[in-house]
Each structure stands twice: as C-alpha cells, then as structure tokens.
Amino acid sequence: MSPYLLSPAAQLDLEQIWDCTCRRWDVDQANGYLRELQRAIELVAVNPKIGQSCEEIRHCYRKLAAGSHIPYFRVMPEGVVDVVRVLHQRIDVDRRL
Hints:
Elements: E1 4-6, H1 8-24, H2 27-46, E2 52-53, E3 61-63, E4 69-75, E5 81-88, H3 93-96
Parallel strand pairs: 1-5
Antiparallel strand pairs: 2-3, 3-4, 4-5
Helix pairs in contact: 1-2
C-alpha cells in the first residue's frame, strides 16, 4: 500500500463520524462505515488520480466520494497522499477547508 497521512483535522473528522454513526445506529454500523471510508482512503493512496480534481476549492486538492462523506486530499511532492479533511457531502466545503 502506498503511504498516506491523515491531518489532525481528518483524524478528528473520522472520530466524529464514528461517534455520530454509533449514536444514530450502533457500534457495528459505525465500525463498518469507518472501514468503508478507510478503504476509500487506501484506494486513493494507491492511485490518487482516481480522485476528482477540486481546484475550484483549493489548489492541488482532489476528492473521492465514499458513502455520505468525501475525503479531500492532496498528493505531496514525494508521492504521499495527505488526507486533509473527511467531510459530509452536504457540508459547505469552502468554510471547512
């Protein structure tokens, strides 16, 4: 697997997603959804070009929808994928990035 980094904000996003999912449904659902998000991030780490460019939001940023959330990332010069945020699809991205 190619290397990737989770920013502190992305780590917090994932924790909050787990908490919200667990409260709304249950632990199994929260764990399963987090695995789905993790698989999407790992897929991006292996092949960053599968993500869609979102230059209109931030220079060099890309995104890939996963469930109801969207990991936003950039590829660093050394090839490492830096996951900046994991935001709900309905969030005002301009205010969060």
